[in-house]
Amino acid sequence: MKIIFAWLSILSLTSITPTNPPGYQVGDVATDFSLKNVDGTKVSLSDYEEAQGFIIVFTCNTCPYSVAYEDRIIALDKKYASLGYPVIAINPNDPAAIDGDDLADMKLRADEKGFTFPYLQDKGQKIYPKYGATRTPHVFVLQKQDTEHIVRYIGAIDDSSRNPDAVSERYVEDAINALLKGNQPQTTNTKAIGCSIKRL
Amino acid sequence: MITAFLYLHIVKSLIYNIFCLSLISANSLDIPSLSYAQLKPMLHQTGDKVYVVNFWATWCAPCIKELPYFETVNRRDDVEVLLVSLDFPKHKTKRLLPFVEKHQLQSKVVHLDDANENFWINDIDTEWSGAIPATIIYTQKERKFYEQSFTLEQLNSEIESFL
């Protein structure tokens, strides 16, 4: 009888625990990774000893919203890498699930656009689910504290994905400007239309 | 002089006819571009049907794959489908209209052209991350949001669960 009760309580526990954790919330510690860059090297957060944090952008070659943001992602890196917040772009798509997102395609696009930041492949799709990325582009601003990386902002780059000339709120810039001043970002979660992450 | 006048008249009527024809073909495809405020009532209809709202774009491969399933269920008398395109505004004439015409979509199609995404994504459903395809199925009594792709079988069985 006791065994049955124990069994039942385990069963009810497992039904409460979500099988797919929704990913990081603001304030969570983000995992480091070691992913292959378009130049063939492996890149990790721990490689950046001088960084105060990171702008992690889950993005890809094939999503028009990602393409619409490329110039703005380059501008973010140019502005904030020297201030301690470099961009690291990660392509979460399974190249077997969509044409145009394998490492060779990524290298081509990075060269064409002159990406100033690493463009990594989430091979095996192990990293994006941990972060909880659901679309491209999807940004996570991390702040380094000792050896940990704390999530400070999750969401969109700005409030006008379809028209860069109509931007009025620059969410990522506002978040990092606040962090650079020693404050917490006022807006910590935003949304934008994007493409689903491609899986088989 | 008379020939010149006649010639001019013919050219004028030709231009007029071409103009009318272009109007007719433009009118045959009525895809309004809506603000979110204009769209919102279409997401809350109060008839007796099962209403299916699908957010898609011509560039979204998984969306295009499931479009025929939405067209299929739209043929049912007890179901009404609304296809909300999230194509870029600059692509409406070049991509959206030709796509709808080529595929002869029978479901109602509207184009959502509203910049305030951070507001309306949450207003549509707080669970929605903003990725497409996304779908709402609702009746007067019940409402569900799906950030996923459907097979025809899945779509049919979801609709059945509302009946």
What does it look like?
With 200 residues, chain A is of the alpha+beta class. Chain A contains 5 helices and 10 strands, in the order αββββαβαβαβββαβ. Chain A has helices spanning 2-16, 64-80, 103-113, 127-131, 171-180; strands at 29-30, 35-37, 42-43, 53-58, 87-91, 119-121, 135-136, 138-145, 148-155, 194-196. Chain A starts with a helix and ends with a strand. By secondary structure, chain B is of the alpha/beta class. In chain B, 46% of the residues lie in helices and 20% in strands. Chain B has 6 helices and 7 strands; from the N terminus they run αβαβαβαβαβββα. Chain B has a 6-stranded mixed β-sheet with strand order 1-4-3-2-6-7. In chain B, strand 2 (50-56), helix 3 (61-74) and strand 3 (79-85) form a beta-alpha-beta unit. Classes of the chains: A alpha+beta (200), B alpha/beta (163). At the A-B interface, strand 10 of A face helix 5 and strand 5 of B. Strand 10 of chain A pairs parallel with strand 5 (131-132) of chain B.
In short:
The complex is a heterodimer of chains A (200) and B (163). Helix content of chain A is 29%, strand content 21%.
Secondary structure elements and their pairing?
The complex is a heterodimer of chains A (200) and B (163).
Chain A (H helix, E strand, L loop, with lengths): L1 H15 L12 E2 L4 E3 L4 E2 L9 E6 L5 H17 L6 E5 L11 H11 L5 E3 L5 H5 L3 E2 L1 E8 L2 E8 L15 H10 L13 E3 L4
Parallel strand pairs in A: 4-5, 5-6
Antiparallel strand pairs in A: 1-9, 2-3, 2-6, 4-8, 7-10, 8-9
Chain B lengths: L1 H27 L4 E2 L1 H4 L10 E7 L4 H14 L4 E7 L6 H11 L5 E5 L4 H8 L6 E2 L1 E5 L4 E4 L5 H11 L1
Parallel strand pairs in B: 1-4, 2-3, 3-4
Antiparallel strand pairs in B: 2-6, 6-7
